[in-house]
């Protein structure tokens, strides 16, 4: 059952490399407990098994929903806004996208005065990467 949950989460998050986690095991325990409640009206702890953490389940669902994106809307955002980057923003954008595409990584710091559209640039980078 855990592998089924892992497969579902991989599809929902578009992350095929996601590995088994405590949250995945907990989700499986919740499914088992739900079946036990339906069939015998008993929670897992009454049957001598580990009880699931329902709070963790709610947090996992929130995280999954938060990480689901409208790919077409993000692509449209990139298409319409990249041409609006100024020369310095475009250099930073190209450098960071190249680092992400090549998987070379690194630490980058954007230093600029307020009002120079750093948030716009970061939002555009995230839209492209997502």
Automatic annotation (TrEMBL):
Root EC class: isomerase
Catalytic reaction annotation: ATP + H2O = ADP + phosphate + H(+)
One matching Pfam family: PIF1
Keyword entries, A-Z: ATP-binding, DNA damage, DNA recombination, DNA repair, Helicase, Hydrolase, Nucleotide-binding
EC number: 5.6.2.3
GO molecular function terms attached to this record: 5'-3' DNA helicase activity; ATP binding; hydrolase activity
One BP annotation, GO: telomere maintenance
Record domain DNA helicase Pif1-like DEAD-box helicase: where: 85-130
Listed cofactors: Mg(2+)
Homology family: Belongs to the helicase family.
Protein name: ATP-dependent DNA helicase
UniProt source species: Psylliodes chrysocephalus
